[in-house]
Amino acid sequence: MSVGADELLALVRELLASHPPATTGPGDFLKARFDAGLAWVHYPAGLGGLGAPRSLQPVVDAALEAAGAPDNDPRRIGIGLGMAAPTILAHGTEEQKRRFLRPLWTGEEVWCQLFSEPGAGSDLAALGTRAVRDGDGWRVDGQKVWTSSAHLARWAILIARTDPDLPKHQGITYFVCDMTDPGVEVRPLRQITGEAEFNEVFLTGVRIPDAHRLGAVGEGWQVARTTLMNERVSIGGMRRPREGGMIAPVAEVWRERPELRTHDLHQRLLTLWVEAEVARLTGERLRQQLAAGRPGPEGSGMKLSFARLNQEISGLEVELLGEEGLLYSDWTMRRPELVDFTGRDAGYRYLRSKGNSIEGGTSEVLLNIVAERVLGLPAEPRSDKDTAWKDLAR
User: Fold this and answer.
1) 252 labelled catalytic
2) pTM confidence score
């Protein structure tokens, strides 16, 4: 029998009574919340959930927030929450689930994603990082790039090629990599914003035990698709209040600075405000659909919309501010602890939004996904589909 809202609220009251937020440390409270099944209520019992409908999570979150309970700083651990956790739940062994999910959710262990490579970004399946059998484990050599949080992460989700004699979508295997192991080198990549939010990661003779393999050998692409679909939902379908996200600072400037207004800017702002609200409501609908199962290709459409809107809205903000919009407050080289799409000033938002159409799948690739998997249009002809990876031109 499914757990209902009243039962969840009763469990919340029990948690608050046994672990008062005012006198319980944040870490201890989060661990107790996970153990009570109130972390992500739709997960199985014993893994942070109670098998309840996903739609009831906001009920729990709101009750705990009202009581002053700490959260797990989801922006800092977004890769773990949005990508690693659902992949481990879907494809991991029971031992893997119990080892990784609790410290992932509480924020004790930060995760990163080792997917993209210098020669395999948009065409991710062309990756060349090799994993070779080495006794009861694997030896991994290669290079990954555009890795958010690699400088903070304890663990990484990693895909590597285990059989170069098969076509590129085959012969890939999915692993969990310990970022503290010998042979893992993280170097910062300074971006147009001045920050080094991303990194490049070099893997030299890194040994991964076979117990840290997710899914069967050679089936890494199927596992990776679970990650990618969840990634696009977590980027494009994140929950926002009305007039939240990138549209918020533009609307605030419009209301507080009437001297900046023009008729043309007014029309553009109205159009983008409506589109942002439509995207927000579409994201709510998508999350309700997810309550019944895994994410589908619709998340790619949401991520496409997110990237386009952020770039158009941030461009409007810079134009609205005129000369002020050309200022940039701080070019200091930093390695931030979280990805902040909307932080700081207008110049930062304008520059940072340029990455939205690249990260989490380029807009060009996502357009193909929407065309083929949502609209049912014919796939583009591909000459490399049945060719062994080792024989592809690189």
Assistant:
1) no
2) 0.89
